[in-house]
From TrEMBL:
Organism: Marichromatium purpuratum 984
Gene3D superfamilies (UniProt xref): Ribulose bisphosphate carboxylase, small subunit
Coiled-coil positions: none
InterPro entries: RuBisCO_ssu_dom, RuBisCO_ssu_sf
Protein name listed in UniProt: Ribulose bisphosphate carboxylase small subunit domain-containing protein
Pfam family, one: RuBisCO_small
Domain Ribulose bisphosphate carboxylase small subunit: 8-82
Length: 88
């Protein structure tokens, strides 16, 4: 799914990676991983940043947020959801 994002992104997009240990709809605070940046056409760079965030925060949910001010649109995708512990 993430590999297909390159076709949807354009240089006017701003890409942001966020993570949260305990995401809750009533608590919309996620922490930013790195700085939001304009999409420069390098999808591998975006995927590498997601992998780096996952390596540093393996127990957190991670989402990719994309804002396109030119078309007044936004998209947020959960790209990593940790496995739940198996009950004993």
């Amino acid at each position: 799914m993430l590999a297909g994002l390159g076709a949807c992104l354009n240089p006017s997009c701003v890409v942001r990676i966020e993570h949260a240990a305990d995401p809750d709809p009533r608590r919309p605070c996620w922490s930013c991983w790195g700085e939001p940046r304009g999409y420069d056409g390098d999808l591998e760079r975006v995927l590498g940043a997601i992998d780096a965030c996952r390596a540093r925060h393996p127990g957190d949910q991670i989402r990719l947020c994309i804002d396109d001010p030119r078309s007044h649109s936004a998209l947020a995708l959960v790209v990593h959801r940790p496995r739940s512990p198996i009950p004993a």
